[in-house]
Amino acid sequence: MTTLRAVVLVEGNSDRVALHTLAARLGRDIAAEGIEVVAMGGITNTRAFASRYGPHGLGVPLAGLFDAAEEAKLRHGLAAAGLGAALEPDGLSGLGFYKCSADLEDELIRALGVEAVEAVIKAAGEARSLRLLAGMPAQRDWTREAVLRRFLGVRSGRKARYAALLVEALEPGRVPEPLAAVLARV
pTM for the complete prediction? Predict the structure, then answer.
């Protein structure tokens, strides 16, 4: 049995899949290293998970990813779990929590570029579904990036599936900073 060395708290399964996929690409078996990536089922569960694993629970070092819009909720959840440094201006990064500018999908789309993301979708056999979505009246005036983000989030399980596919498609020097930073931390 591997000793739990660190816990990475993430909002959902797609974040967990992306981190495991990236770690494997980098030649790391983070589970064997004693690193558990925990999908919390939403940022509002931060306090419960940080209490379980953090200083008032198992005492395991924590790290994580979060969406920019969820920063205040994360700060308060971590502080309520005994990590008061989360309330300081640079407290989150000091604790090992890294912000995605909008969300994970936005980071991956920007890192790859629209054409490369569309190529991944085509290779996955879903180009027709993307075209249909883009042609719907509500999306006709959207940017290609906005349509891609909607496409990735519209069907159950699609975010996680594409998290792996998009991370696999990344060029070595194009890994989004929040993903690279959290893996470097643990």
Answer: 0.92
